[in-house]
Structure formats: C-alpha cells, structure tokens
Design brief:
Layout lengths: L5 H7 L3 H20 L3 E10 L4 E13 L3 E3 L1 H11 L2 H21 L7 E4 L2 H5 L3 H11 L7 E5 L1 H5 L2 H14 L2 E7 L16 E4 L1 H9 L1 H17 L2 E4 L5 H10 L3 E2 L13 H7 L3
Parallel strand pairs: 2-4, 4-5, 5-6, 6-7, 7-8, 8-9
Antiparallel strand pairs: 1-2, 1-9, 2-3
Helix pairs in contact: 2-3, 4-6, 9-10
The chain binds ligand C2E and calcium ion (2 copies).
C-alpha cells in the first residue's frame, strides 16, 4: 500500500486481522464490481506548460464499493494482479479510455491522447497485443491517440518478450512511456533498446527536488538523457508553483499534477479544457 492518501492512512491504522479481512473482502467483491459498474475512470490533464495547451489525459481507475466507499487503485490493483482479474480489469480500463478518446476526437480534440497504465501481468499475457488491437478496432480509435504507460519493471524484465511487444505496438502507432521514472531500477541500459517515446518523472523526485539538491540533479540528468535519446518528458505529481517553476527552468515542458487539476470524471474534461488558462 502506498502512503499518501487519507484512505491509505485508514488502512494503516487497521490491525493485521482487520487488514486481512479487508483484503479478502476486496478480493471477493472485485469479481462483481466490473459487472455492477462500480468501476469507473477519471482523467488527469497533461499540460504543455508553454502556452498552456492540454496534450493528453491519463486514465486512472476508481472503484466505488457499495459499503466500503472509494477504494484506491493502490489497494485493489495489487489484489487484481494476485487473483488474475487484472486481465479483465485491464481490458475494461483500456476499452473505456479508448471509447472516451474517440468521443473527444469526434468533438475536435485531435491533438489529445489518452494514457493508460499497464500492469506487468497484463503486459506479459500472451493475448495482450491481440487484445489492444481488438479494442482499438472495436472503439474505432486510431492507435496514435493511445499512449501506454509502462513501469520500469516491465521494461527491465524479460527482454526478448518486451522488445517484441513494444516494437509491435510502436509499428501500430501506439505511443509508449515509462512511468515513475527515476524511482525503480538503476540500470538505464534498456532505454536505447526500446522504442519509447516519453519518460514520466516520478512524483517522488519532484517532491525530493524541492528540498534536496540531489533531487534537482537527478531531474536535470533525466532531462539531458531524454534529450540525448530524443524522448519527451513529463513530470507527474506537480502540486506547487515552486515545483512548476524549477521544472520549467530545468527545461521540463510537460506537467501533470494537482497544481493544474486533480483527475476529473469524463464529463468535466471538456469544460475544464474550455476554461483552462495558465
Ligand atoms: P501513477 O500511475 O503514478 O498515477 C499517479 C497517481 O498520483 C494517481 O493516483 C493520481 O491521482 C495521483 N496524483 C496525480 N497528481 C498528483 C499530485 O499532484 N499530487 C499527489 N500527491 N498525487 C497526485 P491514483 O489514481 O490513486 O493511482 C495510483 C496508482 O495506481 C497509479 O500510480 C498507477 O500505478 C495505479 N493505477 C491507477 N489506475 C490504473 C489502471 O487503470 N491500471 C493499472 N494497471 N494501474 C493503475
Ligand atoms: Ca501512470
Ligand atoms: Ca507515480
């Protein structure tokens, strides 16, 4: 469980047996949650700071449990991975995100993309590529509107399989980014091998850079690495004007975080875009 949200603190304060009970309850109810439409998506804008253009939206999954209330993905994604339900959940998320992007495209937002998070298990599945293609076809969405966010762990493991899948997606025109960059593995040797488009600087680094010189230096190093490899960069979890200022000063052009907007339900995205000014 990641720390940070109020919900998670509630979980920390539970005893071991209560935690176990909650875990089992989540495991049991997640099966029905999909059918009962308790799962939905919210979208957080990704902003090109110069000019204040919205370039895309990251889809983030939400579960409103009838008794337990909102359950954070930090809690139930792990359960879904353990039980194998992540495959169904992943397809559900991808389908809804692509459907939503097709609606935005048809409204004229043709320079947006939708970014979808992938879990390792989903990516490793033999049917993964077929299911991405099927969903793009079914939702009638051109692949360049879709960006897949991979973790460093996906990128590091199982090189041959990873390379093959990423190349296929790239050939189709799907965009690829590395999520939470700078927190996981220290090896960067995979980067030039893979057809990656974008690095997402992890929130932890943004927070660290505010207080520590080292954080700032890591971010500067990521930006120069990205420049050398011709990758674009976005910083996530940007909350304050101070953070925004030093990221822009370092040359990071794309920003995502509460400073601009929290994740929004789909019906609020277009109104947000229409009224958005930096
Ligand atoms: P992530 O991919 O790193 O997503 C960013 C998380 O930070 C989201 O939490 C988002 O709501 C939150 N966030 C955005 N801006 C800020 C900010 O300025 N400050 C702070 N403190 N937080 C901010 P969320 O939605 O609870 O998701 C947590 C994690 O769950 C995600 O981390 C991602 O790893 C995973 N996740 C979410 N949706 C999906 C999904 O559809 N599929 C998969 N496989 N994983 C998902
Ligand atoms: Ca993400
Ligand atoms: Ca993150």
């Amino acid at each position: 469980i990641k720390s940070g949200s109020k919900n998670n603190y509630a979980v920390y304060s539970l005893g071991i047996s209560e935690q176990r009970h909650r875990h089992l309850q989540i495991e049991k109810d997640l099966y029905q949650a999909l059918e009962r439409q308790e799962i939905s998506l919210v979208y957080q804008p990704q902003i090109q700071a110069a000019g204040g253009l919205i370039v895309g939206w990251e889809a983030l999954v939400r579960w409103q449990h009838p008794e337990m209330g909102w359950i954070s993905p930090g809690e139930f994604i792990a359960v879904a991975e353990e039980t194998g339900l992540i495959l169904q959940l992943g397809q559900y998320v991808l389908r809804h995100a692509c459907r939503q992007m097709a609606i935005w495209r048809d409204l004229g937002y043709r320079d947006w993309h939708v970014a979808v998070n992938l879990s390792v298990k989903e990516f490793r599945e033999a049917s993964f590529l077929a299911s991405v293609s099927a969903i793009l076809q079914e939702t009638d969405l051109e692949p360049h509107y879709l960006e897949l966010e991979l973790t460093e762990r996906i990128a590091m493991e199982n090189e041959e399989d990873t390379l093959q899948k990423l190349r296929y997606l790239k050939e189709q025109g799907v965009k690829l980014s590395i999520d939470d960059f700078g927190t996981g593995y220290s090896s960067l040797s995979y980067l030039p091998l893979y057809p990656i488009d974008k690095l997402k600087i992890a929130r932890e680094l943004v927070v660290m850079a505010e207080h520590k010189e080292e954080g700032m230096e890591i971010i500067a190093a990521i930006l120069s690495l990205a420049h050398a490899l011709n990758l674009s960069v976005i910083a996530e979890g940007v909350e304050t004007r101070e953070q925004l200022r030093f990221l822009l000063a370092q040359g990071c052009r794309q920003i995502q975080g509460y400073y601009f907007s929290k994740p929004l339900p789909p019906e609020q995205c277009v109104p947000f875009a229409q009224s958005f000014k930096v």
